Amino acid sequence: MSKASIIGAYNTEFGAFVRKDKATGLMTDTKTYYDLLIEAGRGAIADAGLDARDIDAIYVGSCSPASFANQEHVAPIAAEIHPDLRFKPMTRCECACASSSVALYDGIYAIESGRFRNVLVIGVEKMNLLPTPQMTHVLACCSHWPSEGSRGMSFPMLFAEYAKGYQAHYKIPIAELEKMMWTAGALCYKNGAENPLAHVRNGPQTVDAIMKLNELDARGKCKNMMVAAPLRLHDCSLVTDGAAALVITPTAKVGNKARAVEIAGIGHSVERLAENVRPNMHELMAGKDAVAKAFKEAGIKAGDVDLVEVHDCFTINQILSTEALGLSADGRGGYDYLDGRFTRDDKVAVNLSGGLKSKGHPVGATGASMHALIYKQLIGEAIGVKAKKADVGVAFNVGGSAVTNCVTVMKKL
Q: Tens digits of per-residue pLDDT, 251-277?
């Protein structure tokens, strides 16, 4: 079976591209869904050194554009990237926050089939046009609605169940678990401060700085409020607008090997949608399965990995993902973060981009962004913090409450 390689990538700036009228609450779009999708697509084609006519098919990952931006049937927007893309096959993929990783996998399958040579994959989301309650509702539709969303369960609440399960299973004192999660979050803020595309570049970069935000003011309020115990505001990722794109081609057809990165292995493993039917809430069982599949296909072990981008939608998931990848023993991930591991100077670096915590989390674009930024690291064109060693990189993207798990191993050619 012929492998596919990434030969070009692009990441837009991530942020909240709206202007809010404080008097009326009305939002004005300053960079639209259409703008973001087109910018990313054009950028990736140019980065690959191709013309639009060279693209055979387009896959677009987007979570909920109808609810966020009043637009369904979004894949045909890619025709506006260039007139030569008119009449090309275009398909939208949806798997919550893993939408664009699944779009990438569909592109890979199409290349492996031999039908297409050059495939453009785009991930995009526009989230900030909605007030927080409406945005929260849209995201809740990615949960199991009968048992979770309809009962007021938000995603912070769903991942809080993992935090509570992890704490109980490993008998970790709550104060210690909090420090573990804040250490993971501070690491992402520190890395994100050097990423020119990141949504937040001035976040608290130490545990002490985060703990300072926990202090109550004269009104009994704090800047790091509890959202869903034990998760506080700075344990949660951002509501972000943005897009990212990739161009993939058969490895055997790669021209410039210096700017190509092979997709050496993929693992796509799906958990049961409702949390209340899962046996283990202290580990990412489907995530571990996806890791095993990807590592086996790529012929690697955890010790071969130089850098990873993990899905830190919440700080507890950063710790759980680190364990699922085999970078930490089960129950030891948080302690490893406390010990100062996974920094830019460690054998394996975690979230050099700043992760979802700092770079931002435009849900449909997150998977493509992870892959794009690892690609840039592996070809020596790092955006932001440069990896100490960059031969093997892994993206671990999650959709829903650790339901859709996508693990991709990327290697230098």
A: 999 999 999 999 999 999 999 999 999
**Phi/psi of residue 138, each to 5°?**
-60, -45
- Please answer whether residues 295 and 409 qualify as being in contact, where contact means their C-beta atoms are separated by less than 8 angstroms: yes
Q: Identify which of 365, 402, 358, 311 has the alpha carbon closest to the alpha carbon of residue 69.
A: 365
Specify the residue for token string 């790529």: 298
Tokens 């190509």 sit on residue: 260
Residue 318 lies in a domain: no
Catalytic, out of 97, 188, 313, 406: 97
- Measured between alpha carbons, how far is 79 from 66 in angstroms, rounded to an integer? 19
Note whether residue 95 is domain-resident. yes
Range of the domain at 61: 4-132+239-246
For residue 228, give both structure tokens: 């869903």
Give catalytic status of residue 95 as yes or no. no
| Structure tokens that stand for 13 in this block | 């700036």
The kind and range of the H/E element at 232 are strand 231-232
Task: Please write the tens of the pLDDT for every residue from 53-97.
Answer: 999 999 999 999 999 999 999 999 999 999 999 999 999 999 999
Domain with residue 10: its CATH number is 3.40.47.10
167 burial type by CB count under 10 A (0-12 exposed, 13-18 middle, 19+ buried): buried
**Would 333 be classed as within a structural domain?**
no
119 within some domain = yes
In the set 199, 282, 311, 361, the catalytic residue is 361
Verify whether residue 361 is a known catalytic residue.
yes
How far apart (Å, rounded) are the C-alpha atoms in residues 140 and 233? 18
Split into its structural domains, the chain has a count of: 1
